[in-house]
Amino acid sequence: MLKDTVLSILEKHELYIYRCIQLAKQGTYAAMPNPSVGAVIVHNDKIIGEGFTSLYGGPHAEPNAIASVKNQQLLKESTLYVSLEPCSHFGKTPPCCDLIIEKQIPRVVIGTVDPFAKVCGKGIAKMKEAGVEVTVGVLEDSCQKSNKRFFTFHQNKRPYIILKWAQTSDGYIAPLYKEKQRPFWISNTYSKQLVHKWRSEEMAFLVGTNTVLTDNTELTTRHWYGQNPIRVYIDKAAKIDQQFAIRNNQVKTICITANKEMISQGNTIFEYANFQENLPEQICHILYKHHILSVVIEGGRQTLQSFIDSDLWDEARIFVGQATLKQGIKAPVLNTFKTLNQHHILSDTLKIVTR
Ligand SMILES: NC(=O)C1=CN([C@@H]2O[C@H](COP(=O)(O)OP(=O)(O)OC[C@H]3O[C@@H](n4cnc5c(N)ncnc54)[C@H](OP(=O)(O)O)[C@@H]3O)[C@@H](O)[C@H]2O)C=CC1
Ligand SMILES: Nc1c(N[C@@H]2O[C@H](COP(=O)(O)O)[C@@H](O)[C@H]2O)[nH]c(=O)[nH]c1=O
Ligand SMILES: [Zn+2]
């Protein structure tokens, strides 16, 4: 209850939109490739309903919030707060702006406009035409950040790119030579488990040719619950055959190749790229075509560095283990970064950096 406090209208708007962002976090990964949105319904300074986006294909935040209101008559005197513009198109569910109009909700406060071309201002226009009082742009930056994958995909026409690697305390990601065809583990078991959690959260994971050849990378979610990501690997000459774990047909797998003769089979899709041109740019284009909203580049050095040098990354997650190697394959070098958060996972340090 805010009845007896002295918050201004703007402060109240920010407070409720902040609550919408909190709610939206509950649905972030389950809703993909849809955005996760939060909605709050306020009557006389009291929250009478809340909702967030359901599992992909299910109801959006607004119908969930509306359905949670016990006394539906109060909707006619309430304000609906929502972190993203209510949709105006028929997707897997009917337009949310129609429901708001039908329920005669008189005021709607929106965090940010939807960048998706089919909506993008049309939801706002439809509600205004129906006489709803609409306010747009409250905590806009935070609302966009809460759907960073969705906004990057629609505004930049590419997935949100997360670089990830593990390095020794003296800056190497692997020894120069390995006897066995498996990864040289630098980070600890708990860090490994966290990476598998990320595999269940992001839409795709990508590795370079040498990583597949020397590690026999599987790129599945095995040490956490949830779904496998789409696997993506680079293989110019298409030399990685079905003996490799990445070709085990378990999940959708995209191979980026220069070999025009490769024909997609089973779960493996061959996508042609011109290796004389900028490869990361072409990969982004291919992943956009496959509606992939986020990708983690898991290595190795050359692959990571080529995305860095092409300025195609949004975030880097770097594990620093305690071991030293003295010589080996050097860790990639970031050209620029903005924020640095450090977390400790027992003996490992996890550095999170954004551009
Ligand atoms: N500690 C860690 O977090 C990780 C360590 N590793 C380790 O790293 C090592 C592999 O790293 P690295 O040797 O750098 O190899 P990569 O896995 O990055 O593969 C490099 C190869 O992929 C192709 N490729 C990648 N990017 C491009 C591009 N932009 N344009 C054209 N071709 C490209 C090229 O293949 P081609 O030359 O055939 O055309 C290139 O030689 C392994 O030892 C692995 O164990 C790997 C991942 C993570
Ligand atoms: N060595 C190393 C990593 N290596 C990465 O993990 C991949 C192995 O994945 P999978 O085959 O699914 O188990 C490997 O090919 C490489 O991309 N990752 C880390 O978090 N820490 C590490 O120390
Ligand atoms: Zn909707």
Automatic annotation (TrEMBL):
The answer to keyword NADP applying to this record is yes
Q: Which organism is it from?
A: Myroides albus
The entry's protein name is Riboflavin biosynthesis protein RibD
**This protein's record includes keyword Lipoprotein:** no
Residues annotated as binding NADP(+): A166, W185, R199, T211, D215, G300, R301, Q302, T303, L304, Q305, S306
User: Do you know which CDD domains this protein is assigned to?
Assistant: Riboflavin_deaminase-reductase
Among NCBIfam families, the record links this protein to:
eubact_ribD (TIGR00326)
According to the UniProt entry, the coiled-coil residues are: none
Q: In which pathway does it act?
A: Cofactor biosynthesis; riboflavin biosynthesis; 5-amino-6-(D-ribitylamino)uracil from GTP: step 2/4; Cofactor biosynthesis; riboflavin biosynthesis; 5-amino-6-(D-ribitylamino)uracil from GTP: step 3/4
Q: Which residues form the CMP/dCMP-type deaminase domain?
A: 11-135
Alphabetized Pfam families for the sequence: dCMP_cyt_deam_1, RibD_C
Query: What does the record give as cofactor?
Result: Zn(2+)
Q: What GO MF annotations does this protein's record show?
A: 5-amino-6-(5-phosphoribosylamino)uracil reductase activity; diaminohydroxyphosphoribosylaminopyrimidine deaminase activity; zinc ion binding
Q: Fetch the Gene3D superfamilies from UniProt.
A: Cytidine Deaminase, domain 2 (3.40.140.10), Dihydrofolate Reductase, subunit A (3.40.430.10)
Q: Which InterPro entries match?
A: APOBEC/CMP_deaminase_Zn-bd, CMP_dCMP_dom, Cytidine_deaminase-like, DHFR-like_dom_sf, Eubact_RibD, RibDG_C, Riboflavin_Biosynth_HTPR
State how the cofactor is bound.
Binds 1 zinc ion.
The UniProt record gives the binding positions of Zn(2+) as H60, C87, C96
- Entry keyword set: Hydrolase, Metal-binding, Multifunctional enzyme, NADP, Oxidoreductase, Riboflavin biosynthesis, Zinc
What is the role of this chain? Converts 2,5-diamino-6-(ribosylamino)-4(3h)-pyrimidinone 5'-phosphate into 5-amino-6-(ribosylamino)-2,4(1h,3h)-pyrimidinedione 5'-phosphate.
Q: Write the Enzyme Commission number(s) for this entry.
A: 3.5.4.26, 1.1.1.193
* Gene field: ribD
Indicate which residues the UniProt annotation says bind substrate: L219, R222, E298
Might you name a Gene Ontology BP term for this protein? Answer: riboflavin biosynthetic process
